[in-house]
Here is the input.
Amino acid sequence: DVKVTQSSRYLVKRTGEKVFLECVQDMDHENMFWYRQDPGLGLRLIYFSYDVKMKEKGDIPEGYSVSREKKERFSLILESASTNQTSMYLCASSMTGGNQPQHFGDGTRLSIL
Amino acid sequence: AQKITQTQPGMFVQEKEAVTLDCTYDTSDPSYGLFWYKQPSSGEMIFLIYQGSYDQQNATEGRYSLNFQKARKSANLVISASQLGDSAMYFCAMREGGIKAAGNKLTFGGGTRVLVKP
Here is the structure.
């Protein structure tokens, strides 16, 4: 089974802090994704990566950056956390191929105080 | 315009009955794919079923089937013989571009919450 592991289930940070969310997958997937999930809005794509050191902006990249130095690891960075970034963050990975589903981690519930 | 629309924010269904979850989509790309995911209260996203735009038959996976009406741009999920464990949020998602499109990125709808009553 595919395993996508997010480093924290719950995280509380303060406004202005630099926040790192880590995601690791164990299935050698080319593609990795970061979403945020807010009630009524579904999942919105922040960034994705289709190869090591490659990154593409999603629909809501403002205030975020990412890093993919190794194939199995995709990090989401909040450069200066703000209260409107309080949300559930979900990481996913997939093989290349349009019929390949994305496999998700358990999510990180991030609160910015 | 919304690319994926799920018009039912929530619904109740009696155990052992079938339920249909609506999903309409908007794309001008002739090649696309539609996915359904389940999210129980524990939070993990579980892949249920996939339908490609060129697939001739409606997709089925166990108790899940997809009522794909291409001309209407709808891809409704049908869950047969509902079980208490089917209580969850359900998300419809679309991938645009051919099957070799880089990144496989998805656009999600807002979700439908299903509660199965015993």
Summary: Chain A touches chain B at residues 31, 33, 35, 40-45, 48-50, 56, 58-59, 88, 90, 92, 94, 96-107 (CB under 8 Å). The CA atoms of residues 4 and 25 of chain A lie 4 Å apart.
